[in-house]
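Hello again, I could really use a second opinion on something today. I owe you a coffee for this, so here goes:
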Amino acid sequence: MKVPKTIKRHCPHCNKHAEHTVSQAKKKGVGSVHTQSRSSYTRLRLRGAWRGSGNQGRFSRPPVGSRKMSGKKLTKKTDFRYTCKACGKQHTQSQGKRAKKVEII
């Protein structure tokens, strides 16, 4: 995917269309939901809330991480930062596009 160095787009800070310089940043990872459910599971187990057998609600199912994934994503979403030439403030795009290779020309 080829992206121009400067692009004219709307700036949310100065609330008008202006020239922006495009730069690419590294996507940051999001914390796993699996670790959150695991901690609540161990808390219940250590407290001794489960004496005997029976349904333990959502913990009766296998944990989220152990379920079979249909396929791995081959690309990462782009994370562009746009710097406004009028006010100098920086903002990001709302949602990235998937691309194997990104080139700022």
